[in-house]
Amino acid sequence: MLPDTFYQFKNIINSLLPLSADALHVHVGLGLFIAVLILADGKPKRFAIAFGVVLASCLAGELLDILYDLREGNPVRWRNGIKDTVNTILWPTIWAIVGTQFNQRKIREDPLGVAESGPPPILSSQPK
User: Fold this and answer.
1) Nearest residue to 95 (alpha-carbon basis) of 45, 44, 43, 50
2) Using one digit for the tens of pLDDT, what is the confidence trace for 19-49?
3) Domain-wise residue ranges, the chain
């Protein structure tokens, strides 16, 4: 029953939005990634968490597609599943790598997170 419901949901989304299925995979993956990043704000591993959610959701969707095909007696569309997975996780993967590197650099530059937000104090060379 779940594969049928999922397939119907995908068809409704495809009919409502004027985008190709491939474009929807890209937008849904990136949208989910950003939503989880916002929800995980402040957590040290938020990029990894967001990527994991996108990957798990993507793989669950592809599993439901396979189960639907098997239930309908259709051959499993492996290449389509791989293409959908790549489309869904490509930009979240890039952003997770870039974001993680940015965070690591930021932590190395200010490990305690105590840097002042203004300009550095001016050092005077005049004796007191």
Assistant:
1) 50
2) 888 999 999 999 999 999 999 988 889 999 9
3) 2-14+22-108
